[in-house]
Every structure is written in structure tokens, then in C-alpha cells.
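Readers of this paper often ask what the protein records in our data store actually look like. The remainder of this section carries one protein's record, kept here as part of the documentation.

:::
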Amino acid sequence: MIERAFESAELDWRFLSFECGPNRLDEALRGAAALGFRGVKLAEAFRGAAAAMIEAIPGALLSDAARFSGSVGCLAERDGVLVGEDFEGQAVLRAALAHGPIDGRRAVLLGAGRAARSIGLALAQQGALLLVAEPDIEPAERLAEDLRGAVPNAQIEAGGYDEGDELALDPTTAVVVRPAEISEKTVSPAWIDFATLRPGMVVIDATLESVRTGLLRESAARGAVGVEGVTLLALETAMTLEAWTGVKVDPAVLADAAEEFLGL
């Protein structure tokens, strides 16, 4: 996928994949810094652990977004320093903004985990009126409090409900986001009351599935706009490549390559 993007942008760059065991991640990150790599892309399983290691490495630091989320999706070299970045939330934000402004509009974020922190920060910084919805109210309240601390004047609410209940969406909701960590394999697809989906709502499902998820199928049936996980993967990867090279990469090229590679 990334090699195809380099070719499309006429960049004389190479992307190489390396196997790394979890117990040797710190060594791998230190090696990348020592060898002068222009960038590193991290597998999902390493993102949280990498965030805890980066600032102990000479010549490396975390971006504000990565520090808040506790997640690093990539490292990018800037003026001789490797910066740990988290573009996951920005990818969701770009996908939402492609369908209209969200400043002052309602957004619902399902869950309060690591990915939700990244997404919540991006939406709050854009001025969304954000509801963090989670069956367990305590994580939702912690994330809402952290977001208020990080984004002055942010309007954030936390909502809890009994697991198995359906979340009724406010009819003025503009955006609904389900992070990849909240999948249909671990959470009932009926987490949302599908009858409360409305035409024009933007429903973003970050899960990468070989078939359209139940949430997106129900959204389409009710006239809502669905955004699939492969779109988010392409947007996040495009931002990563731009951070490495300084050149904008067409996300559509990445999406086509990702669909082919993943068999979507």
C-alpha cells in the first residue's frame, strides 16, 4: 500500500517491514532513532507500549496528541528528532469534515478506550458538542474530564447505560463514531437504537471488516452517511506519509491498495 503511494507521488522512497517481538520493541525504536530512519509505522499492537517508551529514547519525543492518547501510530523525523505521532483522531476528523462542519454540532463517541481518546481530542478541538457513551460510566467520565482539561471551553458529556440497552441518539446528532476497539465481535451491534439514526447523520465505523458492518448497513438503510474503516486507514496513512516526506499523498490511492491487500 505504502510503496504504491510512493510510486504514485513519484517519490524515490522505500518502505520496509520488520518483525519485532513485544519484548524487543524498545530496542527496535532505539535502533530506528540511532540509524537515522525518516519514519516508522507501528502495528496496532505496539501503539500503546511505544508511547510509554518514546521519551526515554535520546533524540525522540511525543506530540501533544500522542501524549494525550497514550498511543503512537508512527514516528516522523523532524530536524533530527523522531516525533511520536498519533493521527488516528485526525483521520476521523477529516472523514467527518468531508461531509460538513462539526463546530457546535453534536457528536457521539462510542467507548472510552485508547482510540477514543485520540478521536475525542480531535473532535473536541474542532468544537464538537461531544457525548462519550460507554456502558461503564466511570471510564466515560474520566475521558470527559481529561478532554475538558486538554481543550479549554470544550463541551463534553459522559453517558452511561446498562450493557445490553440501546443508546438512543439525539435527533440533532451530526456524527457518530465507533472506534476500531469497539467491534461487533466484542460489543452487540444493537448498542445503538438503529431507529434513532437519521438521514444526513455521518456514521464512522473504524473497524476493518471484509463485509460492511451491521452498523453501517443499518445506517445506509436509514439514509445516514457511512464511512468505513478502510477510508480511515487510508487517511491516517496519507498523513503519516506526508509527515515523513513533506509531500501530500492521495488517500484514494491508499484506499484502493488497502482494499486489494486486505481483500475488502
Summary: The chain has two domains: 2-86+236-262, 89-227. The beta strands are 39-41, 60-62, 74-78, 81-85, 106-110, 129-133, 156-159, 173-178, 202-205, 225-227.
